[in-house]
Amino acid sequence: MNKHKNHLNFSEDYWEYLYAMPDQIFSDALDKLYLGIIVWDACGTVLFANPAVRKCYQTEPAWLKAYYENKPAQAEKPPFSPEIREPFVLKPSEDMTSAVQVRIVRPVFSDEEKTQLKFVIELFQENLPYLDVDGSKENLRTDKDGEMQRIVGRSLAFLRPLIELKKIADSNMPILLLGESGVGKTLIAQYVHDCSPRKDQRFFAVNCGAIPGNLLEAELFGYAPGAFTDASKAGRQGIFEIADRGTVFLDEIGDMPLPLQVKILHVIENKSLVPVGGREAIHVDVRIITATNKNLKEMIRKNLFRSDLYWRISTFYQTIPPLRERKEDIIPLAHFYLNQLNEKYGTHKVFDYATLYTLLDYDWPGNVREFRHVVERMYFLSRKSIIYFPDFEMVQKLEEEEEKAPEYDFEFILDAIRKHLVRKSYAENKTSHRVAEDLSISPSKAYRLIRKYCKD
After folding, report:
1. Where does the Sigma-54 factor interaction domain lie (predicted)?
2. DSSP 8-state assignment for residue 131
3. What tens digit of pLDDT does each residue of 47-76 get?
């Protein structure tokens, strides 16, 4: 079994089963594919073109029309030269529709030395819309830097909680988002805000685990003039007051100190607060969304979380599934993040299909946050327009010892990626707090990673 088969992890029996299938089955499958595919011979004659190719052109070229009329279809200028040896990416030609993003041209040879060109495959990759959860429109929002953001997902496990959240977005009901770290709870909280009548008002996201308790209280509730040493003489408004008529998202609510939980409960129940060092209550109208990756009921049993606050914030709760439980979203997410990078840096990179298979095989313990960092890593390490899995520096080292490790150890590679990112960030930012901000992780996690990767 060759390395390609090993990489796809299919059994020998399954490969024999595939090879025994009639060619017509594969031809019929390609005919039904929504992506346009053309197979050329070495001289530029069309051997096969599926119906999806037609929608890629504004006006059908003469050679394409001839093919569909069962006539010899020879292109004057095929998208490759006779000297082609490696796959490459082409921009859309002027006669193609705006839906075509890039074309991937891949040669197939009769020999391992790549001297006898057998045929060439041209694959049309299109810009696909990201539908809102009800399928009605694109789900877009603009962040503070003016970038358009989307919630990308098509799996039922992911869309079901979003549909429920959208239904109650119009209410003022507190929402508790449950799920592992990195699943995108902040983005989903923002989505609820954007679907609500408060969408034109302020949205604040606060990580309760990243700020010490006394500072967190001042951040949320503000403070009166002279409330403590070094306090501003004019005092300061807190996030709840600034976000009046808007939404406040309290991430990692399980890390909030017990005394501060009492004040949060007061805001929810009485819609008022007293700044630190103040005496007069201030009326605030905010929608509070909370999130945690901890078991709050277990924390209540251990007297680490207030039961009365739990019952108030969990009036409506949703669990956001981890990425390993919504594998259908991995390829759309990969294309989405890669398209963002292509737009930012003016490139036209695409994934090799084997790379996408590798992403699907991994469990992603860090969920979408980890996934995004890996896609960025692959983008910057790739030397060509097509991103192959061996483009990782770590994989190149593994290939030097191919006899000892013929298959890719993805866990080792991910650990090496984390090591590179943490070391690079620590070298530039010097402190664990700044590393946490740079990598969008908690300060405690940044501290642990720095001790693990940077103290040798």
Report:
1. 151-380
2. B
3. 989 998 998 999 999 999 999 898 989 998
Mean pLDDT, residues 96-101 = 86
Query: Between the CA of residue 1 and those of 20, 87, 255, 355, 403, what are the distances in Å?
Result: 17, 23, 52, 19, 14
Q: How far apart are CA 180 and CA 154, in angstroms?
A: 19
Amino acid 85 reads R
Expressed as residue numbers, the domain containing 448 is: 326-453
Half-sphere exposure of 106 (CA within 13 A, CB side): 13
What is the C-alpha to C-alpha distance for residues 382 and 354, in angstroms, rounded to an integer?
14
Closest to 128 in 3D by CA, of 97, 170, 100? 100
- Asked if the structure places residue 10 within a domain, the reply is no
Distance CA 437, CA 432 (A): 9
pLDDT for position 374: 86
Residue 143: band (very low, low, confident or very high) from pLDDT cuts 50, 70, 90: very low
Count of the separate structural domains present in the chain = 3
Cα gap 116→290, rounded to integer Å:
62
**56 Cβ partners below 8 Å, 6+ apart?**
36, 96, 97, 99, 100, 124, 126
Q: Among 92, 126, 160, which residue terminates a domain? A: 126
CATH code of the domain covering residue 68 = 3.30.450
pLDDT per position as a tens digit, 3-31: 444 444 556 666 666 666 666 666 777 77
Same domain? For 286 and 336 the reply is: no
Burial of 94 (0-12, 13-18, 19+ CB in 10 A): exposed
Tens digits of per-residue pLDDT, 407-450? Answer: 444 455 566 667 777 887 888 888 888 888 877 787 778 888 88
Those residues whose C-beta lies under 8 Å from the C-beta of residue 347, and which sit 6 or more positions away, are 341, 385
In terms of Cα–Cα distance, which of 213, 216, 291 is closest to 251? 291
351 and 410, same domain (yes or no): yes
Whether residue 19 is contained in a domain is answered as no
The last residue of one of the domains, among 76, 92, 126, is 126
Q: What is the pLDDT of residues 110-137, one digit of tens each?
A: 888 888 888 999 988 877 554 444 433 3
Residue 295 confidence (pLDDT): 95
- pLDDT > 90: percent of the chain: 36
Rounded to the nearest angstrom, the gap between the alpha carbon of residue 105 and the centroid of all alpha carbons in its chain is 27
CB neighbours of residue 58 within 10 Å: 10
Query: Cα(188)–Cα(184) distance, rounded to whole angstroms?
Result: 6
